[in-house]
Write a structure and sequence with these properties.
- This protein has 446 residues and is an all-alpha fold.
- The protein has one domain (2-445).
- It contains 16 helices and no strands.
- The longest helix has 38 residues, at 269-306.
- It is globular.
- InterPro entries: MATE_fam (IPR002528), MATE_MdtK (IPR050222), MdtK-like (IPR048279).
Length: 446
């Protein structure tokens, strides 16, 4: 009986997860194709893309973290069939996300000149600043897209965001080709062209997802409170109360990777370019695993709303198993393609050699990365966000980064030392987050 129950949980998890996986893949493939195409015009532009994306990622995950709070709130309300609350969460989630997107753009734009103080190669910084400013502007449409997307995912509707992400990603590739290399009468814009392609594709994503939620008949019951007079500080407070700790956790994690890029930049442009290749590949598998984590949030949150705690535990446990299986397969593929994949980005033999070694380290931390991201998703379903943020702070900033700094600059392992520190931090986070879900879910079940 128990094995049959788990098979049913695996089936439900998969049906929810695979559209989110493809949708998340669409997010990260924007960066992947930017790097693939920018790498064709030289090592310096690729290093500038690495620096720009590393800094922008902090802003990105902060915004995404707040938006992620909408999904468990919607899922729990859906479990209780509280359609009034769902409607109010849609309105206030959209307004909160729009407000935050504008704030992040303004803050990022005025802070970007201070990149010069990070002691990076001068030409790399010169090319990175205009690129990152366009990415900051893209946060506004992206946060609007996220509001509509997280609302739909909270109702277990995950396929539409997948289709929209696929369309937008294809558009981004086409625009990259036209704007980076100067096709169809356009002047070659290089790295800045990749930034404009990202902005345009994210505007299209927001418009398409908004049109789906606002005009589809299946959502008609949730449209009656979409007026300014129903804006509620209480609902926005609940969104930020749950979302800010999620953002904090994501910033601690992604900030560690971003600061790793800054440390690697102290070594030189080639090391930074190699890091960009390896982190690009690792980000693909991470974002796909975060699709499984999103399914875990929905399933755990929904079963918690129904007070079916046994099913809630099984939904979480089956999500962990799916994450581990997927990441083992990803690690094997990374090792098999450690020499071929970097050659797709650049033709500099020194960069390819360094990136190949980093791919091996990335393959080793795949299981830890999968367990920790699914753990975060399952705990979000329980609306447990503060302790996971503390775990991320300790794992990456108290343990991972100091270990990486020591191995890189004191023990002489260079860029490989920084990545070994990331491996240690991810492993600590995975163990603690898995243990916390087991403990909390067991307490509820009892």
């Amino acid at each position: 009986m128990r094995s049959e129950e788990y098979r049913e949980h695996f089936r439900k998890n998969f049906l929810l997860a695979y559209p989110v996986v493809l949708s998340q893949l669409g997010h990260i493939m924007v960066s992947v194709f930017d790097s693939l195409m920018v790498g064709q015009i030289g090592t310096i532009p690729l290093a500038a893309a690495s620096l720009g994306n590393s800094i922008f990622t902090i802003t990105l995950v902060f915004g995404l973290g707040v938006s992620y709070s909408i999904t468990p709130l919607i899922a729990a309300a859906d479990g209780r069939r509280n359609y009034t609350r769902i409607s109010l969460l849609l309105l206030n989630g959209l307004f909160s996300n729009l407000l935050l997107g504008v704030f992040l753009f303004i803050a990022g734009y005025f802070l970007s000149p201070y990149i010069t103080f990070l002691d990076q190669p001068e030409e790399v910084v010169r090319q990175a600043i205009p690129y990152i400013n366009i990415l900051f502007l893209s946060m506004v449409p992206l946060m609007v897209f996220q509001a509509f997307r997280q609302f739909a995912e909270g109702l277990s509707l995950t396929k539409q965001a997948m289709y929209i992400s696929i369309v937008a990603n294809a558009l981004n590739v086409l625009l990259n080709y036209i704007l980076i290399f100067g096709k169809l009468g356009f002047e070659p814009m290089g790295l800045v062209g990749a930034g404009w392609a990202t902005l345009i594709s994210r505007i299209i994503m927001a418009l398409m997802m908004g049109a789906y939620v606002l005009y589809a008949k299946r959502f008609a019951a949730f449209h009656r409170f979409l007026t300014i007079r129903h804006l509620s500080l209480i609902h926005m407070y609940h969104i930020f109360k749950l979302g800010l700790p999620i953002s904090g956790q994501m910033v601690f994690e992604m900030g560690a990777f971003s600061f790793s890029a800054i440390m690697i930049g102290w070594l030189g442009a080639r090391e930074l370019a190699a890091h960009q290749i390896a982190i690009n590949v690792a980000s693909v598998t991470y974002m796909m695993a975060s699709g499984i984590a999103a399914a875990a949030t929905i399933r755990v949150g929904n079963q918690k709303g129904l007070r079916n705690f046994r099913a809630m535990r099984m939904a979480g446990n089956s999500s962990f198993a799916m994450g581990v299986i997927f990441m083992i397969a990803s690690g094997i593929l990374m090792i098999a393609g450690k020499n071929f994949i970097p050659s797709l980005y650049i033709d500099d033999p020194a960069v390819i050699e360094m990136a190949s070694m980093l791919m091996i380290i990335a393959a080793l931390f795949q299981i830890s990365d999968g367990v920790q991201v699914v753990g975060l998703g399952a705990l979000r379903g329980l609306e447990d966000v503060r302790i996971p943020s503390l775990i991320s702070l300790v794992a990456y900033w108290v343990i991972g980064l100091p270990v990486g700094y020591f191995l890189c600059f004191k023990a002489g392992f260079g860029v490989n030392g920084v990545w070994t520190g990331l491996l240690v931090g991810l492993s600590v986070a995975a163990i603690l987050l898995f243990w916390r879900f087991k403990m909390l879910s067991h307490q509820l079940d009892k």
